[in-house]
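Take a look at the protein record below and tell me what you see:
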Amino acid sequence: MLFTNLVQANLKTRVLGKQIEYYTRLESTNSEAWELIKVGCDNGTVIITDNQFLGKGRGNRDWSASPNKSLTFSIVLSPNINSKFSNWISIISSLAIQKALTSFSTKVELKYPNDIMIGQKKLGGILCETKVSEKKVNHAVIGIGINVNETIEDFDISIQNTATSLHINSNNFYQRERILAETLNQFENIIDQFPNNIDLIKLNWEQACNHLNKLVTFHNNNKIIKGIFKSLSSSGNAILEINGDRKEYFTGEII
C-alpha cells in the first residue's frame, strides 16, 4: 500500500500533490482524473493507485503495471498556455522523472516523445491528454507509469526483453512515495517558469536524450520515416534531418 502522508512529507511544492486522491484499485488514473475535472478538482491534484488494471499508453496500447510494485499516477494541470506549446508538457514530464531518478543514483535516458529508458530497456512512459479551447490548453492530464520494484518475473513474457525496473537495474528496493514526491518537486520546479525557460528545458532534455544526432526510425501518422534526430523545435516537436533537409513533426514517435 502506498502512503500519501509519506508522499506529502517529502514534497517541496506549492501546488502539485497538495491534494492526492488514492485508490487501492482503479481502471485508469487518467480516466479518473477527467472525471474529477468534471466535478471540480484543484490544479495540481494527483490521482494514484496501487493497482491500475486497464492503463493505456500512446496509440491506445496497453500499459501493464504490477500491483503494489510500480508507480501509476496522473497529474491534473490547468496550465492556460497556448496550444502550440502542448507538446512541451510531455517533454517536461519526462525531464522531471529523469531529474528525480538522478537523485536516487539512477541514470535514465529519454526517448522522444515520452519513454523513460535504462539502456535499451523501457523503465516508464507518459500519456499526456489535453483539452483545448480558443487555442489555450485549459486542462491537461499527465499519466505516468514507472516500473519500480518489479522483478523480471513480474513482466509478461512478451516484454521481458524490452522492459526493466529500478529494482532490476540496481538490485535495491525503493520507497515509491519518495520517488513520486521527488518527481512532483522536479516537475513543479520546471513548469513554474514555463514557457520562459524553453531553451533550458530543451538543453537539459537533449543532454538526457539517447538518440540525439543518431539515425532513428520515426512513426508519423501511418508513415515510417528514417532520419537523423536533430533536436526539438520551439513548440516541442521533433526535428529530423532527411536527405540533408530538416523537417518538423508535430506528431509521431521513435520506434
